[in-house]
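In response to reviewer comment 3 from the previous cycle, which asked for concrete evidence that the modeling workflow produces usable outputs, we include below a single protein chain processed end to end. The sequence was submitted unchanged, and the resulting structure tokens are shown without manual editing.
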Amino acid sequence: MPAAAQKRIALSVDDVPRQAGGFYKPDVRTARLIAALRKARVDQVAFFVTPGNLEKPDGKGGEARIARYVRAGHVIGNHSFSHLWLSRTPAPDYIADIDRAAAWLKDRPGYRPWFRFPFLDEGRRDLAKRTEVRTALAARGLSNGYVTIDNYDWHIDALATKAKRAGQQIDMMALRNLYVETLVGAANFYDRVALDALGRQPIQILLLHETDLNAMFIGAVVEGLRKAGWEIVSMDAAYRDPIAKREPDGWFTNGGRVAALAQDAGRVPRDLIDPRTDETVLDELFAARVLKGQ
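The workflow returned the following structure tokens.
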């Protein structure tokens, strides 16, 4: 088995700028997230931008917040303009939406030519549509801004936001522990999948979202990852890993690239999903541990 030092991971954040949560206004959240990453000695995170969010009520000031991430040393990528499902959208319309986001991102500091599929939806079982979009990305010099560690960080944040707005008592330490345990567990799950199916440990890429919980707990997540033997690396380094050039052949791409390549290697998709990537499971854990006794 490869040495523990080969457990390498990069961090990425989707849906920027995101709506306000239950704890922070967007400006405060950005400031806290930047400070927490600096304190945790994480030099480069990729923030995937959905420019259409700037037109929503909570998008006010979003351009300045994105610039703050870049000034702090982080990078930005394309997450489409309107956050569409490819499986529900005609390919020409989907490609036009990518182009609309690319026009906004062009020549901005910190920009990288990476496109991340919203919902990690690369067309599901419509492989012809996926090929059409892949061809369009290549023609534009865009590479797939894939993830390897899928998880439902956004759902835990939604549960906390709902509880906060309902005036429920939240055990914040229990919430922190549940959050860290879930994300570190997901990283270790996909490390095992990679070793089993690929025979090596590629640089993993953690999917996160611009949420209040990440502003609160990203430092604790990084600490938990390091305690579990993970080395935090840059997104630039992550996308130099050999799997960046291995576009999966199978349909199961919505679980991340490691899972997709594992399916190509003959593994069954249901075995390639971390057990906590399930809203019902997280609902029960949140109720039992974070709202315990209520």
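The radius of gyration is 18 Å. We consider this sufficient to address the reviewer's concern, and the full set will be provided in the supplementary archive.
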